[in-house]
Structure formats: C-alpha cells, structure tokens
Amino acid sequence: MLNLLFVYGTLRSEFDNRYARLLRSQAELVGRAIVPGSIYRVAHYPAFRPEPVGEVYGEMYRLSDPEATLKALDEYEGPEFDRVMINGSWIYQFRSEPPENSRIVSGDFMWR
Description:
Blueprint: E1 4-7, H1 18-26, E2 27-36, E3 38-42, E4 45-49, E5 55-63, H2 66-77, E6 81-86, E7 89-94
C-alpha cells in the first residue's frame, strides 16, 4: 500500500488535535510539500478540490503502517471526504463543490 500522505489542514504539525498527534506518532514528517489544486474554507476546516488548478501547501508524511493509520484518518475525515491519490501520495478530497467565495486563495490553510 502507498505510504505517503499529503496533509493541508488540521492534520498538519501545527495542530494538536487527537488525529494530528496520531499521525505524528505513526509517521515520519518528510517535509513541506505542494500539490496542484485548491482549498476552500468549509466550517472550521479546509477542503481540497483538484480544480481550479492552483497550489496547495502542506506537509508530506511517510506512514509506518499505512493501513492502520489511514483507517483511523478515514474515520476522522468522515463521509464528506474521499481519500484519493495525487502525485504519488494520498490526499483527502472534499466530495462536494464548495462555494467559490470560500476559496483560500493563498493555497495555505495556515495563512488563510
């Protein structure tokens, strides 16, 4: 199973929620990374969509036990998100089309 995960929101190392801590305990932070796409603010969290094309900033993790870690993170992300592969890594993609005016133009949830 593919063992790379790109995170762009509340799973990033700046956050201290239960699942961000779980990720850090079960994965190695490879470093900052960029993927093509856009992110949107949905409630208190960001949502990735592949279009319109832009740059999304986040972090890349190498999972030590991908199956177990991704199972837990799938539950955290919930039914609004699908785990998809982009550029050789997993990413959580929002299923719906968010309003265009909710787009985070900087591409970085931490800068909003």
